[in-house]
Amino acid sequence: TGHYTPLPFGCSPLSRPLEAYLLYGIVNLDKPVNPSSHEVVSWIKRIMNLEKTGHSGTLDPKVSGVLLVCLNRATRLVKAQQSAGKEYVCIARFHSDVGSLQKVQKALDLLSGACFQRPPVISAVKRQLRVRTIYETKCVEYNAKRHMAIFWVSCEACPSDHYPCNRFTMFVVVLASSV
């Protein structure tokens, strides 16, 4: 039954007025490096002349990435977005050759599961020890000539957005050379 049944309330997205989007909308924003998440959200609030705005998680100023900005009544959804799992694509540069893609992947596999995490000294969030779960890791590419790797991480929401990259880069060098 893939038929569309019109309901007596609401309207089709094609005929929805712009005011409805501003009242219940979410902006999927690629935050650039340098401004803080708070600055970006306040710019959107001022430019779009909105009463309330909220974001789904703090990205440190030095980090670029996806920032969901909830508009007006959609700010009620912020808590659900903050607790959702996150995915990161990390680029790591090693000091020396660590072998092969398989060695890097073995090292990444050892780091999956529950782990302790404390945000770095310069961070937008409170520095307290937390337990976070790393669900899955995958080494996408390893370049032995440049001593660089690209890997993907699926994890529980981290209070510090660049934490998975820092943690994996630090441990993968040690583990890959001993695996």
TrEMBL record:
**Which cellular component, as a GO term, is one annotated location?**
box H/ACA snoRNP complex
Sequence ranges assigned to domain Dyskerin-like in this UniProt record: 1-41
Pfam families on file: DKCLD, TruB_N
Q: Which SMART domains match?
A: DKCLD
Enumerate the transmembrane spans: none
Could you provide one GO biological process annotation from this protein's UniProt record?
A: mRNA pseudouridine synthesis
Fetch the SUPFAM superfamilies from UniProt: Pseudouridine synthase
Tell me a Gene Ontology molecular-function term this record carries.
pseudouridine synthase activity
The family line of this record is:
Belongs to the pseudouridine synthase TruB family.
Q: Mind telling me what this protein is named?
A: Dyskerin-like domain-containing protein
Record the organism. Answer: Polarella glacialis
